[in-house]
């Protein structure tokens, strides 16, 4: 009897030792991975799944929406990039702290020890990574040589400006105040595609030291619109066309490296596209019917597909929350696309990037989480990217600091179809300091007779479908008027008073304590 038992154990051990190692698989109770795909200047009307008239194929994003949740009333905090990115990562209205973008070689917009989404997830055991566009500042002054006093003259928008040349910085030093200072474990990118320094940054150091001042590329001009290039330090032969392919490869590599990782991961993948310079690579040209911009959107969609394929390759797609959205509406070149290609990046909304009208901040928003979020589900709930912090903290069982006050709402029950009751009653829209809007239910109030910040072309003004505002403020009912054609301020003065008071109350209520 004892011999038989020993023989059975021996055979069992032998079989076990010969079994090949299994690929790491997530378990039902493990923390979900998170990927946030953040497009740059992509309009609501660019995605084919929510605009049947779109001239741009977006197969991977359409499929993502079919497999997950499409939020049709989602908004960025601002109509420009730096404020929206700050709001997403901090869970806080940008206008409580600033309105403008971070300019060339600008400092960080974050306060010391500020609570952020990567901080929260890092404290819950996540490996946090940022790849691509940053545009939230570094402390460049910390590496500037104070003994270097001679600035260099450059040209920006036909104006002479003085800038510090590449030689004014000690590029061997660590650059403080970047992604690693707010909770990311790693970073790779070029900072901002059209802002200096023009070099790769890995974690908190440049990979190659800039040696010259780039004022304008000598060849390979943008295929549509302008370069929107700011002069500044650059490495020799910097190639703008390599930015999107490079960060895409880095993201794919990052995902593959997580195959045997013991920690869950959070990847903040901030694309440089389809922001100007509009530079689709050659293999993507002609893939859309909306010109080079449409091809650039198509290439961005392809990049999403490559990263999602890598996620499937490591068997992690079943337990990963995948989010796709954009930092604001499409750039002003969108007007010319209407004329040249019959493609409206803002469809069905009024306005473009920077504007307080819906086209400036009403953005695509898709979220997928297999077996958790119902496939093909649509939500019309009012939602802001500010709400990601609270929602993801809830879904990952991450702790928020005690008495943490912020502007972020928890939509986890909405995403999981556990509750259909409205979560947000109202939302403030803003870009620059002069104009604010507030949304409450179907009503939207703008505290100005004009909701534009971006100048509309003359031909568009002459043939536009929008009525000229006669009142000093604007009031729209978005249920009946998505395109914000009819100003109802004079017809509903009490509603104007109600929303104006709600806006003032939001502006005067300070929520920042952590």
Automatic annotation (TrEMBL):
Keyword Plastid carried by entry: no
Sulfatase N-terminal domain location: 32-397
Record carries keyword Hydrolase: yes
Lineage: Bacteria, Pseudomonadati, Bacteroidota, Flavobacteriia, Flavobacteriales
Gene3D superfamilies (UniProt xref): 3.30.1120.10, Alkaline Phosphatase, subunit A (3.40.720.10)
The name this protein goes by in its record: Arylsulfatase
Pfam families: Sulfatase
CDD domains in UniProt: ARS_like
Lineage: superkingdom: Bacteria
Record family assignment: Belongs to the sulfatase family.
Keyword line: Calcium, Hydrolase, Metal-binding
